[in-house]
Amino acid sequence: MANLHDQQVRDFLLHGTRTGKVAWVASDGAPHVAPIWFTLDGEDIVFNTGADTGKGRSLVREGRASLVVDDEAPPFSFVKIDGRVTVSDDLDEVRRFATVIGGRYMGADRAEEFGARNGVPGELVIRVHPERVTAAFDIAD
């Protein structure tokens, strides 16, 4: 089994602007999935979401998530992470990660803009602490 200490896994997750697809269970038991922008912080996957969104409420309630990051071009690769979730609404932390993530996906010249836009009250920092990491690279080779 892979882990986030594995440099190949880390390099894959941080390559370019691949989105994560995070899955959670709604209060009615229905499965949901949505794309996210994310970064790594040590051994955690970190992203922002609104506290009042279905995703935010469910992640707070359930305390766990699953996400996958994939390369949709041949020879195809993916990393899947299952883990426990911790949540912070600390505005300094929310703003810091919103800025880092905005810079990753929109470019360093727009990092502050996205940090200001997304680092506001009502937003959360979600940390997925990996318990299981599954990776497959160059599947079609």
Describe this structure in words.
It is a single chain. This protein has helices spanning 7-14, 54-62, 91-106, 111-118; strands at 20-25, 31-36, 39-41, 44-50, 64-71, 77-88, 123-136. With 141 residues, the protein is an alpha+beta fold. It has a single domain, classed as Electron Transport, Fmn-binding Protein, Chain A (Pnp Oxidase, Chain A). Helix 3 crosses helix 4. The model has no long low-confidence stretch (mean pLDDT 96).
Hey, roughly how much beta strand do the residues contain? 35-45%
CATH class: Mainly Beta
Computed structural class: alpha+beta
CATH superfamily caption: Electron Transport, Fmn-binding Protein, Chain A
Largest sheet: 7 strands, antiparallel
Radius of gyration from the CA trace? 15 Å
Q: Architecture, according to CATH?
A: Roll
**Helical amount:** 25-40%
Numbering strands along the chain, what is their spatial order in the largest sheet?
A: 2-1-5-6-7-4-3
Q: CATH fold name, please? A: Pnp Oxidase, Chain A
Mean pLDDT reading:
96
Shape: globular
DSSP summary: helix tally: 4
Uncertain regions spanning at least 5 consecutive residues: none
Measured between the Cα atoms of the first and last residue, the distance is 20 Å
Supply the number of structural domains.
1
Helix and strand element order: HEEEEHEEHHE
Number of strands: 7
Task: Name its key features.
single chain, 141 residues, alpha+beta, Pnp Oxidase, Chain A, 4 helices, 7 strands, 40% strand, globular
